[in-house]
User: Which sequence fits this backbone?
């Protein structure tokens, strides 16, 4: 069944790839960006995951280990960090919006590469990058640590929210101080992009990438001119997040070809079915997207990411004064248990983001967790750009 679907999709995907390479090649460059990042992560009391059997045990035991960690948190800090390489897909518009270099830095969720933001399948309907360029924004979509072509550090101690947030800080500083292109190794794309300095950086996240962005805003809010958190909502259902639905497996055993260089603690979604359950509402799902993800833009996640899903969520974000939009599928399963209407409290949100210039929660109709790959995505992007525009960005 899966084989049949993938065979029938192959020619389609190939055609889409060719046309989008033509369309985008003149204004995108692939970068390996050097970053130095250090953070205080948490030493978790967790068993190792070295097989699919261990991965199931880990999922089922997660609550128990979380409880242990909370009890021991004061002695659980661990200093981590070093030099890393971050793989970036960097695109600039032909005409900058408002004559300004406004850069959107996009952080993906678990189970993805940066390709989430610029799929070659149905780019006119799904690509956030393409839609943003048309509006005059530059975009840096990057593989977070432990995903795609970026560095693959220890999956327990390193792949956690604080270190990922420090990487986002380093990328932001490089964009603002003009070294994002000049300090990087180019691995493909346009040779005409040789230098870039952002005047404003807007931070855009999806899911775990939104959790990381939220942590970053709480500490380094002054580096951000605006933020869009997609696949994210602080509500009365988030604590019930059902990790079981991802059917987590051990990455190198699940897909030996793709994940041969992953080591202990690296996980992957267990199946296309599990990915669907976590990500989509049928009304806005093109089933070919599932195969496209499987073959082109899926990646690994770490045990440490699963254990830090709540890190910083609900912290008061006092130093961020830009506009903030929370853009979530009305039927997001991960954050809303399938129905976001009526489960969040705007007064509470204003308390958590006391100094934002503008706060908006937008529910994208009939859409699940992965708004970027759902039908009607581009209409949603216009809502996001309208919000930024209203706030002068
Ligand atoms: C880690 O915590 C220590 C003690 O609070 C602090 O001095 C240090 O600056 C922190 N390191 C980082 C990278 O945040
Ligand atoms: C891991 O392996 C993949 C697939 O072979 C490769 O593309 C990637 O560059 C490797 N990553 C690292 C950090 O070596
Ligand atoms: C730019 O920012 C990066 C990341 O913080 C830093 O490593 C680098 O030294 C800075 N370069 C300049 C020229 O300020
Ligand atoms: C917010 O900014 C103020 C002034 O720059 C600083 O003293 C404070 O530590 C910052 N708060 C956080 C949570 O970083
Ligand atoms: C598509 O998205 C836009 C923007 O959120 C929304 O106004 C419109 O109602 C959506 N269309 C459908 C059919 O849900």
Assistant:
């Amino acid at each position: 069944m899966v084989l049949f679907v993938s065979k029938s999709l192959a020619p389609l995907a190939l055609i889409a790839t060719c046309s989008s390479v033509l369309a985008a090649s003149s204004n995108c460059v692939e970068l390996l960006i050097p970053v130095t990042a250090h953070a205080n992560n948490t030493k978790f009391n967790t068993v190792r995951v070295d097989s699919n059997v261990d991965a199931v045990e880990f999922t089922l035991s997660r609550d128990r280990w979380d409880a242990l960690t909370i009890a021991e948190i004061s002695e659980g800090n661990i200093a981590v960090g070093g030099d890393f390489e971050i793989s970036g897909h960097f695109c600039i518009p032909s005409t900058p919006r408002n004559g300004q270099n406004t850069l959107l830095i996009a952080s993906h969720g678990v189970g993805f590469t940066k390709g989430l933001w610029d799929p070659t399948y149905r780019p006119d309907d799904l690509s956030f990058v393409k839609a943003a360029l048309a509006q005059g924004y530059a975009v840096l979509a990057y593989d977070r640590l432990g995903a795609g072509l970026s560095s693959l550090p220890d999956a327990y101690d390193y792949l956690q929210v604080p270190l990922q947030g420090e990487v986002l800080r380093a990328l932001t500083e490089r964009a603002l101080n003009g070294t994002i292109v000049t300090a990087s190794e180019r691995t493909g794309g346009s040779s005409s992009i040789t230098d870039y300095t952002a005047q404003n950086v807007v931070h855009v996240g999806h899911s775990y990438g939104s959790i990381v962005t939220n942590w970053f805003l709480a500490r380094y809010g002054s580096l951000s001119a605006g933020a869009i958190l997609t696949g994210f909502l602080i509500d009365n259902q988030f604590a019930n997040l059902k990790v079981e639905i991802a059917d987590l497996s051990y990455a190198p055993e699940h897909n030996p070809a793709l994940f041969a260089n992953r080591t202990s603690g690296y996980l992957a979604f267990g199946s296309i079915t599990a990915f669907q359950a976590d990500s989509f509402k049928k009304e806005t799902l093109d089933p070919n997207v599932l195969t496209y993800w499987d073959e082109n833009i899926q990646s690994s996640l770490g045990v440490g990411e699963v254990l830090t899903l709540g890190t910083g969520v609900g912290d008061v974000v006092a130093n961020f004064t830009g506009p903030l939009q929370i853009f979530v599928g009305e039927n997001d399963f991960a954050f809303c248990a399938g129905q976001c209407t009526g489960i969040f409290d705007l007064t509470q949100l204003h308390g958590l983001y006391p100094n934002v210039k503008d706060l908006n929660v937008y529910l994208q109709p009939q859409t699940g967790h992965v708004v970027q790959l759902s039908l009607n995505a581009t209409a949603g992007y216009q809502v996001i750009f309208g919000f930024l525009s209203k706030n002068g960005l």
About this structure: Residues 2-24 form the longest helix (23 residues). The domain at 2-390 is CATH 3.40.50.1820 (Rossmann fold).
